[in-house]
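Teaching assistant here, posting this on the class forum so everyone can see the example we discussed in section. The complex has two components, and the goal was to see what a joint structure prediction looks like when all of them are supplied at once.
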Amino acid sequence: TQLLEQSPQFLSIQEGENLTVYCNSSSVFSSLQWYRQEPGEGPVLLVTVVTGGEVKKLKRLTFQFGDARKDSSLHITAAQPGDTGLYLCRSGTYKYIFGTGTRLKVLA
Amino acid sequence: KAGVTQTPRYLIKTRGQQVTLSCSPISGHRSVSWYQQTPGQGLQFLFEYFSETQRNKGNFPGRFSGRQFSNSRSEMNVSTLELGDSALYLCASSLAGGPADTQYFGPGTRLTVL
């Protein structure tokens, strides 16, 4: 069974700080997606990474896919309260496996 | 364009009962997937439908079933409810399904089993 472990599980930081969230697996994936879920809503796709070593930027968010396509990271620069939410990675396989999640809270 | 809608938003049932949840996908989307989200197990894939056919299935018991209609609307049914079925049930639609396709999630149905 493929597992996607995310770390840290919880993160509470002050506005303006930087942070990195990790998504790790022992399996190789053809692609990996990152989602953010806010309370009372479903997850919203942030980005899809496909190529090993790929780096994608979305405003203050930087996503990286590991060279071996087994891991990924999400870095947020100068976090804002609007970044608060549950961050989920998802494997690019037909079993739609989601990571264990990182719950981020950014304090004003 | 309207997003994915799910009804009802909240539901309370007792053990042993059955429940049916509904999902209306974004217009033009032919694939609907269902997920269960709990604090302990996270977000887990239930099944995926495309053009009225179940194309993919997760590791859930047979008490969990679903179907899709010709207009792409989907329903999922849980029979003989157990306390552990309390969860947020999410549906997601996409144009054609598959892991490369972007899924758009609805707000979910919060099911509480007493």
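For the discussion questions: The mean pLDDT of chain A is 93. The interface with chain B takes residues 30-31, 40-45, 48, 88, 91-101 of chain A (CB under 8 Å). Think about how each of these relates to the inputs above.
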